[in-house]
Structures are given as C-alpha cells and as structure tokens.
Amino acid sequence: MAHLSIPKTYKLFIGGAFPRSESGRTYPVTDAKGNFMANAALGSRKDARDAVTAARKGFGAWSKATPYNRGQVIYRAAEMLEGRKPQFVELISTSRGSSVRSATAEVDAAVDRLVHYAGWTDKLAAVFGHANPVSAPYFSYSAPEPTGVVAALAPAESPLLGLVSVVAPIISSGNACVVVAAEADPCVAITFAEVLATSDLPGGVVNLLTGQPKEMGPHLAGHGDVNALDLTGADDELRTTLAQLGSQTVKRVYVPKGVPDFAAAPGTARLRAFLEIKTVWHPTGALSLAAGGGY
Amino acid sequence: MSSAVTKDERPDTLRLLPPHLNDVTVDESSLRRFLHGLPGVDPVGVEERAAGLATRSIKKAAKLAAIDLAISMVDLTTLEGSDTVGKVRNLARKAMLPDPERPETPRTAAVCVYPDLVPTAVQELAGSGVKVASVATAFPSGRSSLEVKLAETRMVVEAGADEVDMVIDRGAFLAGRYGFVFDQIQAVKAACGPARLKVILETGELATYDNVRRASWLALLAGADFIKTSTGKINPAATLPVTHVMLQAVKDWYAETGQQRSVKPAGGIRTTKDAIKYLVAVNEVAGPQWLDPYYFRFGASSVLNDLVMQRRTQLEGHYWGPDYVTVD
Questions:
Q1: CATH ID of A26-282, from 3.40.605.10, 2.60.40.3390, 3.40.50.1240, 1.20.120.350
Q2: A225, B322: Cβ pair inside 8 Å?
Q3: Does B12 touch chain A (CB under 8 A)?
Q4: Which residues of B are catalytic?
Q5: What pTM did the predictor assign?
Q6: Residue range B106-139, pLDDT digits in tens
Q7: CA of B313 to nearest chain A CA: how many angstroms apart?
C-alpha cells in the first residue's frame, strides 16, 4: 500500500505543551516560492495571557535551579538540535529558499550559540557580581539575579539562529520567556520548541507563540506580570508603541543597537539586559579597628 | 454582641416546619425512610449539566458585576495550624479593603478563623459590617463528644462570632446513624443563639451524590442556615456537580417550606473563572434570589487575589500580576 504523507499541524508551545490557539484561528505559511507549506496557529490575546501565566509558573523552578543545572539543560538543547539538523536544514532552505550550505551553516551556528550560553550560566555571578570596596565596616557585594518573565519578539531574519540568539541569553540567567516567533517562520520556531520540549527544560520556561507580533505584542507589553521586553523583532513603529506600553508597568526594555548581526560573536548586552543586581551590605563590626587598622 | 447589626440583616428564618415534614424527624426510622425516599441523583446528568453551564461566557460589564458580587460573597479564610494573631489582623484588613488602590472594591462577606482567633478578628472587624465566622465542633474531623462540640460553639459565640461553621460526624452519617447526626446539628444550632450556623457536609468523604442530597436535607431539617461543601482539608473539596446537588436541595426546601436557606462551597475555588462558574450555577439551579452574599458564599482565600486582579484588568484594560496585590 502506498504511503500517504501526513502534513504537520504547527501548534503553540505553552507551559511545556503544544496547544492549539484558544481562538481556534490558523494562518497559512508559504515557502520562498509562494507555495503553501503548512497551517500555523494564529495566537490571540488569551494565548498570550496563558503563556505569561505558564512563564510565571516556570520561572519559580528555573530561577531556583542551580546555574550548573541550567547549563546542563541548555547544553542538552544543543545536543537535541544537533540531532535534528537535517530536519532544520530542510525547513530553512524550503521556507527561505536558501542553499543547503547556508542553511547548514545557520543550524551549526545555532548549536554553537546554545553551547555558548550553556557555558555562561555558572559564570554570570563571577563576571557580573562584585565585592564592593566600601569605606565602612561592611562587607558589601553585588550579585546578579534574573529579572523574571521576559516577553520577546523574535527577529524575522535568520529564523533559527535569530530565535536561539534571543531565547538563550534570556533563559541562561534564570528568566522565563514568552516569545512571539517571526510571523513568516512559525514552522522553524515550533520545531525548535520540540527540541526544547525534549531537553529537560521545565515546562513554562520558554513559551512560543506564533501569529502576528502586532496583535500579541501590545498585550504582552501592557501585562502587569511581564517584567521585561526584548523588542529585537519589532520594527521602529512597533518598538515605540510597545516601549510606551511597557513603561506603564515599569518594565525593562531591551532594543538592540542598529541591525543585529547574529552570525557575529554575541557579546554580553543581551545577557546583561535581563539581570537585576542585588547588593548586600553585611556588617563586619570593627574588626579592622581591633586589628589596629582604621577606616 | 460585638459587631453591629447592619442594614442588610435579614430577620431570622421562621423555623416552623410544615406538618408533612414534622413527622419526618420524630424518630430515627422515619428520618431514614424520608432520606432514602428522596429521589436519586443522576450522576451523569448532573455532571453534564454542571459542565454545560460552566461553558457560559460572561464578559465586560456583566463580568465586572460578577466579580464585585463574588468579592462580596467571599468568606476570607485562614485555617492553618501556623495561624498567628498578626496573620488574622492582616486578613481582616484585607477583608475590609481588598484593593487599597481601588477603595470602592466591595468588602468580603466574612473572615473565617479558628476559635482561639475569634477575639482578634472581632476586634479588627468591629463596625465594618464584615462578619466573623469561626469553625467549631472539633473541626475538621468532628470526632469528639457532643459536650466538647457544644462547649466550643458557646465559646466562639460568646467571643463574638456571627457565624459558626460546624462539621457533621461523617462516620455516623455513613454508618446510617442519621438520628445521631440530626440531634448533634440541632443541639449545635441551639447553642449558636443568634449566630448563623453553617453545616459542613465534607462531600469529599460522602462518596455518592445521593449521600450529598441526603446529608443536605438532613442538615436543613435540623435547622442549618447554610449547607457547606467542605472543610478544605480533604480532596476533592467543592466541585460544581456537588454544589449543583446542594443548590437543588435548598431550592426544593424553599418550595416545600417557604424558607430560603444558604449554600457555601469551600475549598478548591482559586480563580475568577471558577467563581463565575459557581455564580452561573447559582442563578440557573437555585435562582437569581440566591445571588446575594446572605444566601451564597465562597469559602476561599487565594481567589480574592485573582478577583482583585481581574477587576483591575476589567477596569484598566490590561492584565495584572501578583506583584501588584497582596499575596498571603
């Protein structure tokens, strides 16, 4: 009997599960030549709300996990992505019409990017924390902590590498995120969600919504339980609107300078954008005086 | 009595039973005959109806009205071994001012505490119109002698509780000793004096809907002002189908006797969505005259946070997070 190929339904990724949009809406995705590729879920306001609720739940366990453990999980995601390389190469080259060679280069770079941020998890405190020299009998130190729930708009260019470059720095420091995938590339994003779902990442740490950033962005930017925004994937007009909405609940807002080059070395700006620095002053008494010293 | 009589105070329901129900309670065997003669509950039907009503969509102005009504029906409850005077004080303040940034938010119906914390609650809530409810009668198991149960009831009423939440002896009920349970409820009701009596059936331990219906009628016959689902210490606590059966009981009771009694689901109601589902059930099963904090209450604590957050969402057009309300 001849095999009948089963076309895949691309759904959302919320709280570790793959639900359809609450609204029941979908939109057709086309490849580079304009041919129909698949139907993807058209996320709604309520999907965004559900994703934030899931992210808040996921944040609890993820932010309390040891940095070592977070590094292991993100490294595991790199392993899983490596194993699915042919699938991603095919998806990217079909949807973008790019050569197999450049698609392969993008997947390789995405794996490297995950490994890069897996290495960062247990070095954040050492690099961004300090023992502060203070002129009083205190031991004062500053340590980085995750900001909380971050809503991000994934960039339209480099569907996989761009998405990974946005998500990995957010979660490596212990944040949870709600990411609106690039509107034209939901298939790559949801297939990446399958990678995350099989990487021991606790449910809710990464939530992926597909659909229109213009529709869901404002609800995320105005949401009181979202602590920060990453507006990488928004155009100038949308950035202004969302930043204004975000200011009403005093969110951190990250906007990259210029057009980001995801193929280049990532730097630390994205890591630093979603860290809070907590400073502790611990009294040491007058030890230095007893030892014959002075302030 | 500590708390002032407020304007919405209803006269105590007339306790006289109609003649055909008078015979029912004369002895244990007629009580059993009556309770077992009640029509059986169709479990599939009641669950289907509960699930069907739960799909109703309440939006905009109706949702805001439902949220305000639900807030005014909350019995804000803390029943932990670790409760302190400070925690009860904070809870009382929250009951009087659920959302400090929006002082027009309605107050909750009552604060529900353990017996030893009644004086604290009474002191904090004096003059506010928020009632003080106390559990009594060896809560949550109800396993003690009648003397102890009555002594505890008198203690909380003397301390100023407006409402007493008693538990029935589930062991006796399940063993079929209906007369024993009936007498205990009646004795506690007498000890309550002016305080309203809520009878906790602990439906999670009653096993069948038929038992829930029988226990509801038993409590109503014995003089319960409220029938309440659960203690909150047993899983499952309140569920929609169980509340349906109890709402049917008070509705039938009203039809038989003309007395309007009250219902209180407790435990497991955590979100605004849950609360609104219950309000729909009250309207559809019992009737709109039960949509009143005097006749319907929610035994809950965390649901108030969600109600307050959803209220702000409705008024300000964007979602709120727990960073902006007190979480206890």
A1: 3.40.605.10
A2: yes
A3: no
A4: 165, 228, 264
A5: 0.86
A6: 999 999 999 999 999 999 999 999 999 999 999 9
A7: 9
